[in-house]
Amino acid sequence: MDRIKASAVISPRKRKRGLHSPELSHSYEIKYTKFVIFIMQRKMGMTRRMFLMELARRKGFRVESELSDSVTHIVAENNSYLEVLDWLKGQTVSDSSRFELLDISWFTACMEAGRPVDSEMKYRLMEQCQSPLNTPESEEPSFIARKVSQYSCQRKTTLNNYNQKFTDAFEIMAENYEFKENEIFCLEFLRAASLLKYLPFPVTRMKDIQGLPCLGDHVRDVIEEIIEEGESSKVKEVLNDERYKAFKQFTSVFGVGVKTSEKWYRMGLRTVEELKADKTLKLSKMQKAGFLYYEDLVSCVSKAEADAVTLIVKNTVSTFLPDALVTITGGFRRGKNMGHDIDFLITSPGPREDDELLHKVVDLWKKQGLLLYCDFIESTFVEEQLPSRKVDAMDHFQKCFAILKLCQPGADNSSYSTSKKLDMAEDKDWKAIRVDLVITPFEQYAYALLGWTGSRQFGRDLRRFATQERKMILDNHGLYDRRKRIFLKAESEEEIFAHLGLDYVEPWERNA
Predict the structure, then answer these.
(1) Residue 510's Cα: distance from chain center in Å?
(2) Residues 213/195, Cβ–Cβ less than 8 Å
(3) Residues spanned by the domain of 43
(4) 70-90: buried (b, 16+ CB within 10 Å) or exposed (e) per residue?
(5) Average pLDDT for consecutive 10-residue bins of the chain (512 residues)?
(6) Structurally, how many domains does the chain consist of?
(7) What pTM value is reported for the model?
């Protein structure tokens, strides 16, 4: 399950407007009269721009909706100096020198400080003499050392991975250390993999990684060997290790973790086939389901299958709660086309919560013959409990871990059917799919959405950043400011990033 897991709570309250509706503009006192800000909508979008404008006005800044003669500072996001100049020409502005042209990071710094900060060189948009990626070999690639953060929540990482041969190797090393319960080395390789996924170019020489954070000696040894030899002897050693291969198979079973794998390995078991043949093993209900539907569950879930399950979940939930919001999270929300399970977040903007919703949903699936397995975890949150300080702590939401029967496409191969089909072949015409349903109070929806979207490393770094850089505690339920001793409310993911003083990162840019 690709997500952040956490704890604590903020009490739910009734909302007067839709979840994603931009806030209405109010009259706020202008504290900083010398600064008149205009935020460019280009590459940002209207909703985010309106949110940022309202945020700045609440902080006492004067923000203009239209470009006018009174504007002193123009803020742009993901726009170069030349792109801003071109845009200004389109607005019939002849003299751009009267404006301070600033990156969104300046605006973020102002919001964090609650006042204007100096528009230092690092915030200004300026014409570049050459692209950092075209830096001659004799010069250092200066953009790397200066701008790459140690936190993946400050790096926009898409699915375009130019360094997969390295990141695949790192993930194998990390998994091996996880099986050995060596958290330090596991995290070292996971952070390195996250960093190299972010790079917008393939690493071909050791000089390419000079000045980058998160690359310790163990990691550099693997990189250097792959550059020189085409592969890593350490990774080959892991892949041929009997214990690693056994744990890899054991943990592929739904409901089996490292502790159980260790127990079975010490019993002399080595493969899934040996586990299935051993009738003396005491298996949990979840593990029995894992073995029963093993072949289906270890195969990847396609985007088409995820869409089909989404339709089933939404239709069923709306039967009992018509105004419910059902959102797919995890890797599919981040733009992936394949996954291993499908996670859904369910909330309702109404004042009433239905504690029996998940039970009603499951009961209907049982009657329809769709439910193969389910396990409930009831809500355990406590009012005013502080967020968990543990990066990978479980949250306290009510949830259901289920396995659904999804029928394969019909003869026209155009849609999925949830009804029983006539036996037209000896092979089964359905597939077992892992589905997680999570119920969250509306007040905590933004935090839960951020947490369950992932990626796991992105979430870890986001919470680590909150603790180490902002003296705050973040989890799936809320954000607590330790200095002010208050919970910070948020109606959207954008607002959470703003609370943390971070540039907003879209879901498809969180593939860390």
Answers:
(1) 5
(2) yes
(3) 32-123
(4) ebebbbbbebebeebbebbee
(5) 37 36 61 92 83 90 91 89 86 82 87 82 64 41 61 95 96 97 94 95 89 91 94 97 98 97 98 96 97 97 97 97 96 96 94 82 97 94 76 85 88 38 58 97 96 96 95 95 94 96 95 96
(6) 3
(7) 0.72
In angstroms, the CA 375 to CA 421 distance is 27
Task: Look at residues 99, 123, 147 and tell me which one is the last residue of a structural domain.
Answer: 123
Retrieve residue 349's tokens: 């903007």
Whole-number pLDDT of residue 113: 82
Token duo for residue 85:
């100049």
DSSP 401-414: EEEEEEEPP-TTSS
Query: 3-class secondary structure for 218-251?
Result: HHHHHHHHHHHHCCCHHHHHHHCCHHHHHHHHHC
57 and 179 co-located in one domain: no
The radius of gyration of the chain from alpha carbons, rounded to an integer in Å, stands at 26
Partners of 480 in the beta sheet? 473, 487
> What is the 3-state secondary structure of 299-356?
CCEEHHHHHHHHHHHHHHHHHHCCCCEEEECHHHHCCCCEECCEEEEEECCCCCCCCC
CA 405/CA 293 separation, integer angstroms: 10
CA dihedral 422, 426, 427, 433 (to 10 degrees): 40
In a domain, 25, yes or no: no
The residues assigned a catalytic role are 341, 343, 436
